[in-house]
Structures are given as structure tokens and as C-alpha cells.
Amino acid sequence: MNWLISGRSDGAYAQAVHTTAASATTRRSGSGGRLLGLLAASHPGPSLTVTVVATVLAATTGRGLGGTVLTASAVLTGQLSVGWCNDRADLHRDIATGRRDKPLTTGTVTPRTVATAALCALVLCVPLSLAMGPAAGGVHLVAVALAWSYNLGIKRTPLSWLPYAVAFALLPAVVTLGLPNHPWPPGWAMAAGALLGIGAHASNVLPDIEDDLTTGVRGLPQRLGAHRARLMAAVPLLAASTVLVLGPSTPAGPLEWTGLAVTGALAAAVVLPPRSGARSRLPFTATLLLAVLDVALLVLRGAALA
């Protein structure tokens, strides 16, 4: 991982990366600005979302205060490491496509700072994960390793969906394997997690398909094209909702059934061609809402994991 720290990158964008790294050192906006930039580079939205979901699941399945705090700490450090790794790995692509909403491309923080933060968070994640127990900790570290592998190369291949699917499927196991007797979660929870992961992957890619193709990122959604990528987002997310409502042995209540109905309507909005044309934000917005509803359903059904 020497390139991660050194700021070197291969290919046609190397000089641009060097230029950005150098200019970042001359355009510092003070320690407060650098701290905010570093936080923004961690992908705080997804990082906090995954952490909150894991924390709530730990609390609702009986992990206790100590176990819940430990789960939150391990998942947060893992997610921060993944977010920082992602921004550092994508630096040359962000420069090539003119992204000005990233702290690294604007020079708010340096590549070395982001890379160091990613590695430090990863180092912290290891003992925090293992403190949950060898089973829960080992599964969590596998999920983090899959996310890093996505950032560092798998995202460019037809198997780009696989790290998302496996890592999301393992999230319920991170929680339940820390319980007494270390039970694996029920199959419906892992299936719903895998479907949610596939849909989240496609949703995340939707706004950037053209830029990704320009810079050589040809994961499965990019290879499918915009319309079929919308299907790849909507169908698994709707399937995840269905599994979450019908899978547990405890009957679903009005809230769960309402959530399933809404996800069906949103899935239709994703798949149907938008009236405002190909550049409409409706499909992407609808997929985000679909993912949020799936996460809410997972939390609502969390007690059934134990």
C-alpha cells in the first residue's frame, strides 16, 4: 500500500495527482478546516448510517450497554477506514472528471493525511472488533476487508457487486455472533442484507456511470448501462423489503406492510423512464429512499434476529 501513503499513482493521471497533493500543502485553511475536510473525506453519511444500524441492532438483540458501545466503536472505525480509503483511491479519477466537491481535489486535506487516517482507523478497528469476540470480530474484519478490496480494485470488475453483497449479509452476523452461544443470524436476515448490499452498490453508482466509464471503472452497473443499472438497484432493494417483511416468524405489523407498499411504488419510480429525460435525478433519489426504507425495516425487524 505504499502508493496510498506516498501519494503516487500509476497511469495518465499521475502528474495531476502530484499537483493536487502539492497544492494542498499551500492552501491550508487552518486546523478546523482541515479537520472538517478530513471528516468529509470519510463519507460520513454512509459511515454513520451503517454504524447506527449496527448499534440499534446490537441494542435490540440484547447485547447490553457494553456490547452495544463496543459494536458501535468497531463498526465506526471500520467504516471510517473504508471511506478514507475510497477517497484516496479515487483521487486520480476525481481529478480527471473535475470533481470539486471532494476535500482531496480542492486541497483541503492532503493525500498523505487521508491515507494515514485510513490506516490508523483500520489499525484501531482490529482490536475493537476482536474485543467483541473471535467470531463476531472475525466476521466484521472480513466485511471491512471486502470493502477495502472493492476500493482497491474489485470495483473495476464485473464482480463489483460481490463485496457489497457479502459485507451487508454479514452485518447481522456481527451483531448476533457477539451474543451468548454465538448464534448465526437467521437466513432471512442475511439474505435481506445481501440484497440490500447489491441494491446499495447500484444506487451508489447511478449518478457517476458516465464518469466511471471515462476513467476506466467498469463494474457490473457500468457494464449494464444506466437503464439496466436502475433495475439492478430497484429489484434487489424491493426484494430485500419483501424478505424483511415476510421472512421473520413474527408477523409484520401495519408499519412494515406500509413500508413494503412504499418500496413497491419507489421501485416503479426507479424503473420507469423519467419524464424529464435521462438526466433526471428521480431514479437516483428514489433508490436512496428505497435503501433508507430497507434499513428502517431491518431495524424494525431487528428484535427477531435474536
From TrEMBL:
Native organism taxonomy: Bacteria, Bacillati, Actinomycetota, Actinomycetes, Kitasatosporales
Residues annotated as transmembrane: 161-180, 228-248, 284-304
Localization of this protein: Membrane
Pfam families: UbiA
Highest taxon of the lineage: Bacteria
InterPro entries assigned: UbiA_prenyltransferase, UbiA_sf
The keyword Transmembrane helix appears for this protein: yes
Membrane topology summary: Multi-pass membrane protein
Keywords: Membrane, Transmembrane, Transmembrane helix
Primary location: membrane
Signal peptide: none
Source organism: Streptomyces xanthochromogenes
Protein name per its UniProtKB record: Membrane protein
Gene3D superfamilies to which the protein is assigned, alphabetical: UbiA prenyltransferase
